[in-house]
Write a structure and sequence with these properties.
This protein has helices at about 95-110, 140-155, 185-190, 245-255, 270-285, 300-310, and strands spanning about 5-10, 10-15, 35-40, 50-55, 60-65, 70-75, 75-80, 85-90, 120-125, 130-135, 155-160, 160-165, 170-175, 180, 195-200, 205-210, 225-235, 240-245, 285-295. By secondary structure, the chain is an alpha+beta fold. It has two domains: about 5-115, no CATH class; about 120-310, Rossmann fold (3-Layer(aba) Sandwich). Helix content is about 25%, strand content about 35%. The protein has six helices and 19 strands. It has an eight-stranded mixed β-sheet, with helices on one face.
């Protein structure tokens, strides 16, 4: 039975088994779709075709089995229907924390694209009905910035690494996973409570921090409209600086932050659709570069700068 209910990127998630790192169902409004997550019966089907191998610590492999997409991970094999409405999970241990982490951070951010959304390598925060995206490569400080802004500026964290966007026709940022991945130096500098931290499986020393109780969706942040996009540039020192970017420059930077379900070069339709969606978003949403020093004391200055820009 599909006894467990969650939300992810405005999508209703119903599952046969409990999942970690997902939020409670949205308190109001219609979801943008539904994904049913079921336990795979018997052995996982073999791969018919290999589509892509992701590099990195988890070495996830994307393939095809019949009409379904097949994700091979260290925690098990996950099959997704072509429309993304159903996942089948073949795993020896459904309670494995790595499985929950991979679903929330690697698989669902990509599968939700099949239901009409876009995913970016970015953090997303919301306040007073407005959302911002913080884009940047790994190491740009997205997770630390989200926690810093939440602590000093009252921003609610929608995601720390995978921003989920729906076009309605305005562009909305939707809540993703329920926690933030951080390194020990960040948790120590921000004095985060130990009970709210847990080890992030597969990362040496990295933690997950859950800022909202029980993975809840903060009130008023279910469907905030994106009011600004900020490309992070962390420097060793210097002052906080915002610079408005012309659309072509923002477009060029944003191209590198598109998350693809299938990065295979032959998957042209998805790539064209995502590039076109980014261009449409930048036609209505302003973008800035945000240069800032590597310091935990500058988040109030950044929050004040954001307030001024979004109020203009």
């Amino acid at each position: 039975m599909l006894s467990f209910s969650y939300s992810f990127g405005g999508i209703a998630i119903i599952s046969e088994f409990p999942l970690t790192r997902l939020r409670s169902p949205l308190p109001h409004g219609q979801p943008f779709g539904q994904i049913a997550i079921e336990t795979g019966r018997g052995p996982a089907p073999d791969e018919d075709e290999r589509l892509f191998d992701w590099p990195g610590r988890f070495e996830i492999k994307l393939g095809r089995t019949g009409t379904e997409l097949r994700f091979e991970t260290p925690a098990g094999i996950i099959l997704a229907t072509a429309d993304g409405s159903r996942l089948r999970v073949f795993a020896q241990d459904l309670a494995n924390s790595l499985l929950g982490d991979l679903l929330a951070r690697r698989i669902l951010p990509r599968v939700t694209k099949l239901l009409g959304g876009e995913t970016y390598h970015a953090a997303a925060l919301a306040r007073n009905g407005k959302a911002i995206l913080l884009m940047g490569a790994t190491g740009a400080g997205k997770s630390s910035m989200t926690l810093g802004l939440a602590s000093v500026g009252g921003w609610s964290i929608l995601s720390d690494d995978a921003a989920l966007v729906q076009e309605t026709p305005s562009f909305l940022a939707l809540p993703a996973g329920s926690d933030v991945a951080i390194w020990p130096e960040t948790s120590g500098a921000m004095d985060l409570p130990d009970p709210a931290l847990r080890a992030l499986t597969g990362y040496d020393g990295k933690f997950c921090y859950q800022p909202e109780p029980s993975g809840s969706v903060p009130t008023g942040t279910a469907h905030p409209q994106i009011a600004g996009i900020f490309f992070l540039d962390r420097q060793a020192d210097g002052a906080v600086a915002f610079e408005r970017l012309p659309r072509p420059q923002a477009f060029e930077l944003g191209l590198h932050q598109i998350v693809l379900l299938n990065p295979n070069g032959r998957a042209a339709a998805e790539r064209v659709g995502s590039v076109t969606a980014l261009n449409r978003m930048l036609a209505t949403v302003p973008a800035w570069s945000l240069t800032y020093p590597a310091s935990y004391s500058i988040y109030q200055d950044i929050s004040s700068g954001l307030d001024a820009l979004l109020a203009a």
